[in-house]
């Protein structure tokens, strides 16, 4: 039987430190594929969810964020951003994080799950929304902490987590094969 050698795989041990002034609490459990960022802002709670299954920092071609002068596709990570009010209403944003910027793909409004009324309006494609309203939504998220620097942090953090989880997986495989 052939010996399984984990050391054949060269993986960079990338550790991303959370800055002291980082506005979000990071929930990241080893072995789990979801990263959650949470913060309170007045009477609102902001949750940003990154699912590693969908976040491979792959280059996205033809995205609305890429302008004509940018011929190279940029790495991006899809995010689900929820801004919840104490009354149970929430806005849910489908967002893509790029280096130094975010791109809103869609917005929906929802009521608390315990409500018997089913308010779940996805609205039109974000690109069809009035330009001035689009700008207002970007400002809305920026005030709540979703900025270009947060997008950069998330891109680095996802790469680091993906590497750690891959290393953990390889070690588990090695332990299985050796025992």
Automatic annotation (TrEMBL):
Organism: Datura stramonium
InterPro entries: MAM33, MAM33_sf
Residues forming coiled coils: none
Alphabetical list of Pfam families matching this protein: MAM33
Domain of life: Eukaryota
Phylogenetic placement of the source organism: Eukaryota, Viridiplantae, Streptophyta, Embryophyta, Tracheophyta
Name of the protein: Mitochondrial acidic protein MAM33
PANTHER family with a match to the protein in the record: COMPLEMENT COMPONENT 1, MITOCHONDRIAL GLYCOPROTEIN FAMILY PROTEIN
